[in-house]
Amino acid sequence: MKRFIFYMILLAVALAMILPFFWTLYASFVRHDLDVSRYPTSIDRYGVENYAFILTRENLGYWYRNSVIVTLCITISNLLLNTMAGYSLARIKFPGRHLFFILTLGIMMVPVQILLIPIFIMMANFGWINTYLALIVPFMVNPFGAFLMRQYFVDFPTELEDAAKIDGLSRIGTFFRIAFPLCTPALIAQAIFIFVWNWNSFMFPSILVTRPEMFTLPVGIYQITNTAYTASITRSMAGVVLMTIPTIVFFVVFQRYFVTGVARTGIKG
Predict the structure, then answer these.
(1) What CATH architecture does domain 57-265 belong to?
(2) Which residues partner with 226 through β-bridges?
(3) Which residues of the chain have pLDDT under 70?
(4) Which residues 6+ apart lie within 8 Å of 133 measured at CB?
């Protein structure tokens, strides 16, 4: 009975999380906004016109390209820099190490909305507005990624580092030749978090670029499905579905490593 109740609770939570996505998928095939909540319904109210509208926009290819470039650059830089930061906080004893760790935790608690104006002013002063630099450089490091990797390296076997030291490897050599290759599960977990966050990012790209050809996918889809006077729910949902496909594929491919990485870093939930 306890197991049955437990699985019923899990099922209810899973349904609560997945139903909004199914509604999004359903709404994306409805031809007109007024038919989304109209019952009873008929088959002639459904079609692929919303997807055709999105896929025939002339700038869609630019938006996909921009999202791919920006997301991959941010993800790769985060994997390297966050891992180096996490390794330093966990394995290297230097003055102020605990203070830096507390600051990292404190930065994680800062609402991202507070950073909108400072980052915009900095990018404007550098002359980087409407460039890839504005979309990439401010997000090359993530405090959550550093924390995640720090939790992984806390339990990293000291025997491996001692053996590397005996073989003549420096601290940098130990990191790149021993520690970095052995933290693949944690790297995959971090990559999924960073990839999804930045692929779906809307706030910062919407203020850092103003030219249509420089929009990322979320910003571009918002611009073509919302005008000053109207907003199309069904077209927006079609855009959301198209935008979600790469993240679902990315997660499904690396799901096994993601579960292992989260378990080993001690992050629960």
Answers:
(1) Orthogonal Bundle (1.10)
(2) 231
(3) 40, 227-230, 257-269
(4) 123, 126
Count other C-beta atoms under 10 Å from residue 40's C-beta.
4
Amino acid in position 75: T
Q: What is the pLDDT of residue 268?
A: 42
Output the CA–CA distances (angstroms, integers) from residue 6 to 9, 10, 12, 15, 137, in the order listed: 5, 6, 10, 14, 45
Six-digit token string for 177: 């030749």
Separation between Cα atoms, residue 79 and residue 66, nearest integer Å: 20
C-alpha count within 13 angstroms, C-beta hemisphere, residue 109: 5
- What type of residue is 264? R
Q: What is the rounded CA–CA span in Å between residue 223 and residue 219?
A: 6
What is the Cα–Cα distance from 244 to 22, expressed in whole angstroms? 12
Domain ranges of the chain: 1-47, 57-265
pLDDT tens by residue, 40-80: 677 778 888 889 988 888 888 899 999 999 999 999 999 99
Q: Which of 121, 127, 249 is nearest to 196 (CA)?
A: 249
For tokens 């001692």, name the residue: 162
